[in-house]
């Protein structure tokens, strides 16, 4: 089972319902890279004895004595005395030994878009560029964002009407991939031996 969580960071925001990638292809190019961080692995071991099973619900007494209830997905398989079983096959008294391995990997999907245009309006952190297709697009520049004017770095506060500029929009989508692998082994309860009493 894997889980992904997501967040988004944008280096240059567009104040418009139309994303910049709708501009003419010649005005911009986009590249996407997937960057994976360091993977962490956590291993948890549990031991328990089955007390009750109904449907996918398992009630077990843990090794520490506490009673816990689990809702077991059908994908989880049990190996009891060497035989594969599902939670529906478990009997009260069955001893279980579970190993849960959780692997977590941070992943960032980074999309870089290069665009160019002519400054039509600039004030504060807001700039409107006229793109090569003749359309005006409004952008909101984040602090520290750099434009290129005549081969030199410039901030949004340096921009003036009529300047030819190029810019780079970076969109980062951090996600976390979480994978869990659970293996459960066990042994069935030993049958009780009944000794018949002899009557004299």
Describe the structure.
With 200 residues, the protein is mainly beta. It folds into 2 domains: 2-37 and 107-176, no CATH class; 40-105. It is built from no helices and 15 strands. It has a 15-stranded mixed sheet that branches. A hairpin with a 2-residue loop joins strand 13 (147-149) and strand 14. It is rod-shaped and about 95 Å long.
Topology:
Blueprint: E1 2-6, E2 9-10, E3 12-14, E4 28-36, E5 40-54, E6 57-62, E7 67-71, E8 78-80, E9 83-85, E10 95-123, E11 126-130, E12 136-141, E13 147-149, E14 152-154, E15 164-187
Parallel strand pairs: 8-15
Antiparallel strand pairs: 1-15, 2-15, 3-12, 4-10, 5-6, 5-10, 6-7, 8-9, 10-11, 10-15, 11-12, 13-14, 13-15
Class from secondary-structure proportions: mainly beta
**Biggest sheet, in brief?**
15 strands, mixed
Query: Which consecutive residue ranges, at least 5 long each, have pLDDT under 50?
Result: 7-26
Cα(first) to Cα(last) distance is: 64 Å
The number of helical segments is 0
- Residue-averaged pLDDT, rounded? 81
Oligomer kind: single chain
* Helix/strand order, N-terminal first: EEEEEEEEEEEEEEE
Radius of gyration equals 31 Å
Count of discrete structural domains? 2
What is the tally of beta strands? 15
Helix proportion: under 10%
Shape: rod-shaped
Share in β-strands: over 45%
What brief labels describe this structure?
15 strands; rod-shaped; 200 residues; 2 domains; single chain; mainly beta
